[in-house]
């Protein structure tokens, strides 16, 4: 899975920013949308995305 | 609803001052998305900052209001603290089980509990009534003539997590407070232009009509208006929590990302509150009859914004459907920044940036005359539009300019 698939569109970019802040991961903001995510990183980002999407 | 409260003064440049504290209108969506952003990184310690900011602003207002109204008994002061809480749209606050050593404060209704839950459409992992806790700390200190840092508060139950009633436990423990700067910077010498003339909108008439509406909290201490839950909130609360967040993010390597999220909270605010105004019965009665073209909708909503306590918004340049240059006189963010920190090295009017782009998106992409539902799907539709508007701040009162300037253009 790529960054763009996990965080699609402009809204996805905002969610990715929230995830990056949550994880203190500035390097995430520098990845290009076509970057393929390693399985462990993908799992971690997806779990955090679920977390920040909740209240 | 009759409450004995200090008088609100509409001061120069549209400021709403109560016992010298500036107030601004904001809705539960802005309060939700702002707080959501601030609490993302738990290592920043923002929960404590939010509570402290509330305590500082509320303490400043209540102590002055008690003097202004000559309230000397505990009962009268408790009543003032509870009635002010309700009047400003924060809910219902019960202080009768608390005293000079602390005790229990209950919240049968809480904007930060109940209405943030509505905005999020979900329960929260952590309690959201941090503002209420800070309010209660300040109220107890003011009621018992104790120093503003006399109390700490813990949230035992919160409506944001499904509790029927919010419960706060207060106890004596020194907590840091900051000195609220009141209205902060106030520019006196600048020549403020008149409202945009190439429009059929009559701003003075709109402001006069809005002044007749009742924006006080109802019997539940809430202000349901324009499809949102409004609060008449402390400008320096927003300022302190936003700016302390910015300060803490400076060391993270993600300052710009953090600022983007503050602007996004402003976009949410514009979408829900300003969009709510533009699809309201009040708009249909007062503003819409003045609109001859869809461009007039923009000038109409700017006139309404000038009733919110955010400063005075003036259109400096306008290319219909393409470009808006707004100049804002005494925007509350800059006024607060200068009052708290002095001159800024970077532009800090995040809410204003979100508002400017948000208004253009609503007017030119939102199809508001059809009265669409202003839900998350509609927000996403506007946010994903390839020709949506984005803002940048080109001047800032906080950086030494005479006004704040925001440019909104198609991306």
What does this structure look like?
The complex is a heterodimer of chains A (55) and B (411). Chain A has 55 residues and is mostly helical. Chain A has helices at 3-6, 9-23, 26-30, 39-53. Chain A is globular, with a radius of gyration of 10 Å. Chain A starts with a helix and ends with a helix. In chain B, the strands form 3 sheets. Chain B has a 5-stranded antiparallel sheet with strand order 1-2-3-9-8. In chain B, strand 1 (8-11) and strand 2 form a beta hairpin. In chain B, helix 7 packs across helix 11 and helix 10 (294-305) packs antiparallel against helix 12 (350-365). Chain A binds chain B through residues 9-11, 14, 17-18, 20-22, 24, 26, 29, 51-52, 54-55, and chain B through 36-37, 40-41, 43, 116-117, 120, 122-125, 128, 160, 249, 252-254, 257-258, 260-261, 264, 380, 383-384, 388.
Low-confidence stretches of chain A: none
Radius of gyration of chain A: 10 Å
Task: Strand order, main sheet of chain B: write it out.
Answer: 1-2-3-9-8
Total of helices of chain B:
13
Distance between the termini of chain A: 26 Å
Number of helices of chain A: 4
Features:
heterodimer; A: 55 residues; mainly alpha; 4 helices; 71% helix; 0% strand; globular; B: 411 residues; alpha+beta; 5-stranded antiparallel β-sheet; 4-stranded antiparallel β-sheet; 42% helix
Indicate the topology:
The complex is a heterodimer of chains A (55) and B (411).
Chain A: H1 3-6, H2 9-23, H3 26-30, H4 39-53
Helix pairs in contact in A: 2-4
Chain B: E1 8-11, E2 15-18, E3 21-27, H1 28-38, H2 46-68, H3 74-87, E4 91-99, E5 102-110, H4 111-120, H5 130-143, E6 151-157, E7 166-172, H6 203-210, E8 223-225, E9 228-234, H7 235-249, H8 255-278, H9 281-286, H10 294-305, E10 312-319, E11 323-329, H11 332-341, H12 350-365, H13 376-384, E12 389-395, E13 404-410
Antiparallel strand pairs in B: 1-2, 2-3, 3-9, 4-5, 5-7, 6-7, 8-9, 10-11, 11-13, 12-13
Helix pairs in contact in B: 1-4, 1-8, 2-5, 2-7, 3-5, 6-10, 7-8, 7-11, 8-12, 10-12
């Amino acid at each position: 899975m790529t960054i763009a698939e996990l965080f699609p569109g402009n809204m996805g970019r905002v969610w990715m920013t929230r995830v990056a802040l949550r994880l203190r991961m500035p390097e995430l903001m520098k990845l290009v949308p076509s970057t393929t995510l390693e399985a462990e990183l993908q799992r971690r980002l997806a779990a955090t995305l679920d977390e920040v999407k909740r209240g | 609803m009759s409450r004995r409260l200090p008088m609100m003064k509409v001061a120069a440049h549209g400021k709403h001052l109560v016992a010298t504290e500036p107030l601004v209108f904001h809705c539960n969506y802005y309060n939700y998305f702002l707080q959501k952003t601030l609490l993302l990184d738990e290592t920043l310690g923002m929960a404590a900052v939010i509570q402290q900011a509330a305590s500082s602003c509320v303490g400043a207002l209540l102590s002055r209001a008690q003097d202004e109204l000559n309230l000397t008994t505990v009962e009268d002061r408790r009543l003032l603290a509870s009635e002010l809480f309700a009047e400003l749209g924060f809910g219902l606050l019960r202080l009768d089980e608390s005293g000079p050593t602390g005790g229990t404060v209950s919240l049968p209704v809480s904007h930060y509990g109940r209405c943030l839950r509505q905005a999020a459409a979900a329960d929260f992992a952590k309690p959201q009534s941090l503002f209420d806790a800070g309010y209660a700390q300040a109220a107890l200190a003011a009621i018992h003539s104790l120093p503003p840092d006399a109390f700490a508060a813990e949230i035992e139950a919160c409506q944001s997590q499904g509790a029927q009633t919010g419960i706060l436990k207060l106890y004596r423990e020194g907590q840091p407070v900051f000195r609220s700067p009141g209205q902060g910077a106030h520019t006196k010498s600048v020549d403020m232009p008149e409202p945009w003339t190439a429009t059929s909108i009559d701003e003075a008439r709109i402001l006069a009509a809005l002044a007749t509406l009742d924006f006080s909290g109802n019997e539940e201490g809430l202000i349901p208006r324009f499809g949102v839950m409004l609060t008449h909130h402390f400008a320096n609360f927003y300022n302190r929590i936003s700016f302390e967040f910015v300060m803490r993010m400076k060391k993270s390597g993600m300052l710009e990302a953090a600022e983007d999220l503050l602007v996004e909270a402003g976009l949410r605010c514009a979408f829900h509150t300003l969009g709510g105004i533009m699809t309201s019965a009040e708009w249909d009665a007062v503003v819409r009859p003045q609109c001859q073209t869809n461009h007039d909708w923009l000038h109409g909503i700017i006139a309404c914004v000038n009733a919110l306590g955010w400063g005075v918004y003036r259109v400096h340049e306008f290319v219909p459907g393409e470009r808006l240059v707004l100049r804002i006189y005494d925007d509350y963010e800059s006024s607060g920044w200068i009052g708290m920190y002095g001159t800024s090295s970077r532009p800090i009017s995040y809410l204003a940036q979100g508002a400017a782009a948000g208004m253009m998106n609503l007017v030119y992409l939102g199809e508001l005359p059809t009265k669409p539902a202003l839900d998350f799907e509609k927000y996403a539709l506007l946010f994903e539009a390839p020709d949506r508007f984005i803002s940048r701040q080109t001047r800032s009162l906080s950086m030494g300019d005479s006004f704040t300037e925001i440019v909104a253009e198609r991306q």
